[in-house]
Amino acid sequence: MVRGSGPLASPQKLRSYPSYRGGEGMAAWAFHRISGIGVWLFIILHVIDIWLIGANPEAYDFLGQIYSSPPGRVAETLLGAALFYHALNGMRIVVMDFWPALTAYHRQLWRIVWIVFFAIGLPGAYIILKPIWEVAG
Amino acid sequence: MSAPRYSLSGRPRPTGSTVDLYVWYAVRLSSLALFVLALAHFAMTHFVFDPADQSAEWVRQTRWNSVALRALDWGMLMAVLVHGFLGMRTVLQDYVPSRVRSLSLGALYLLALILFVLGTQVVIALPFD
Ligand code: HEM
Question: Which of A1, A44, A104, A134 has its CA 20 to 30 A from that of B83?
Answer without folding.
Answer: A104
